[in-house]
Specification:
Elements: H1 6-23, E1 27-33, E2 41-45, H2 59-65, E3 75-81, E4 87-96, E5 102-111, H3 113-126, H4 142-155, H5 166-179, H6 187-195, H7 199-215, H8 217-223
Antiparallel strand pairs: 1-2, 1-5, 3-4, 4-5
């Protein structure tokens, strides 16, 4: 190694050691000196690929070195595999001297095999049954539940309750009945106040709706 290049490699070696300390035993960082490609590996922190000092350069790096120095680019986040079959996420940073000549490389390999296994298990756990399209909201009070259900139905009419026709108000009550709104105590009074009618009118709407549902259950199914 030429003396003028020593600071570059010293920094690369310190960086390699620090990265492995930071990311742990599944991380490996290798430093290569291209002055002798047959035994370019001059430092290795961590142990993922089972290589030793004096190991040769990789084929991927050789492909880059075949280019002109100005055309050699760092390579980030590519997939590699160790001889043991472990899948790794890898990156290569090329080291340059004062004249911008490529003189070596800092190569990072992170074994993601276990993470891939966890990923599969996590995806299975957080997956949903897409055949059932359901939504659920959570509230702090029963009043909030009633209010939200009424608001959801009213949005479908795109007009103020005061402008709704009799048939529209009956339809509004029917949709709320289908949602189970009137199972909640106090819902009748609230719906009556929103629609601008008496609670007895709401009772009449409900009686009419329930009678139709009993006599013509197929009609009720079509609405749902």
């Amino acid at each position: 190694m030429k003396e003028c290049r020593k600071p570059v490699f010293d920094l690369a070696i310190r960086t390699a050691d620090m990265l492995v300390k930071m990311f742990g035993s599944r991380c490996e960082v290798a430093v290569h000196d291209f002055s002798d490609l047959k035994k370019s590996l001059i430092h290795i922190a961590g142990n993922v690929t089972d290589r030793k000092i004096g190991s040769p350069i990789t084929d991927l790096v050789l492909n880059e070195l075949a280019k002109h120095d100005n055309d050699v680019n760092d390579i980030a986040n590519y997939k590699t595999q160790s001889k043991k079959g472990n899948v790794m996420k890898s990156s290569t940073i090329f080291l340059r001297d004062d004249e911008n000549k490529v003189i070596g490389a800092l190569c990072l390999n992170y074994d993601i095999s276990l993470l891939m296994q966890f990923s599969g298990e996590i995806e299975e756990f957080i997956g949903f049954d897409d055949s059932h399209s359901k939504s659920e909201n959570f509230y702090n009070s029963v009043q909030d539940v009633i209010h939200e259900m009424v608001e959801q139905v009213l949005q479908g009419f795109k007009k103020a309750p005061s402008l709704m026709t009799l048939d529209e108000k009956v339809e509004c009550v029917r949709q709320l009945e289908d949602k189970g709104t009137f199972l909640i105590k106090g819902a009748t009074d609230y719906v009556a106040s929103v629609l601008g009618v008496s609670k007895f009118t709401i009772y009449n709407y409900l009686q009419k709706i329930r009678t139709i549902n009993e006599l013509h259950p197929e009609a009720a199914i079509e609405h749902k």
